[in-house]
Each structure stands twice: as structure tokens, then as C-alpha cells.
Amino acid sequence: xxxxxxxxxxxxxxxxxxxxxxxxxxxxxxxxxxxxxxxxxxxxxxxxxxxxxxxxxxxxxxxxxxxxxxxxxxxxxxxxxxxxxxxxxxxxxxxxxxxxxxxxxxxxxxxxxxxxxxxxxxxxxxx
Length: 127
Hints:
Structural class: mainly alpha
Protein name: DUF2379 domain-containing protein
Strand content: under 5%
Pfam families: DUF2379
Mean pLDDT: 95
Helix content: over 70%
Number of helices: 6
Order of helices and strands: HHHHHH
Distance between the termini: 26 Å
InterPro entries: DUSAM_dom (IPR011753)
């Protein structure tokens, strides 16, 4: 991805609202943050626009965005760990499969791009 992604603001908002029970308010700033984050986590502009028509929808968009960031990150980190173990053992087929498994379910573009890049690197290394 060419643009720098900064998920700290969305993570901080999600923590305050979803974990610390801070009241949720759909301000212009929150609306912009959710709208900007949606495509970064694989949510279409039209789906985000629909969600942003109500406070409840916006709260669900926040919840879903935070979930995709957290779960996708964990999935990718765990798969990379297993991939490197397979690679160290010389099992490039299993290493590739780890990245294919991520690509089969991942919707966050940054995580998909990372997995695809690792898969291509494995293909280059294994020959």
C-alpha cells in the first residue's frame, strides 16, 4: 500500500468506547476517522456510508473495524511464525500453505498484501 496506515486513533477510540465504556458520540471527527479506516480494513465505501447514517451503525462500524485489525494482525503474525518454522525446516510447501491459508480468509488489504508478498518471496527462494 502506498499510503501510510495509522490505526492508533481507531484502536484508541475502540478501547475507550468498547472496553472502558466511554460514551460513543458520532462527531464529525469520529465520522471522518471511521470513513477513512473502512477501506483500510476491507469495508466498502457504500457499506461505511450506510453504517454512518446512525449512531448505532457507526458504533458497529467501529466494532467491526477494530475486530478486523486485531484478528487479522493475530492471524498474520501467527501464520508468519509458523511459515518461518517450516522454512527453517526446508518445508517450503507448508510455508507457502500458511500464507495461502491467510489469503483464503483475510479481508484487510495490508495484511493480504503482506501475505501475498511473503508467498512470492517463498516462490523466489524455493525456485
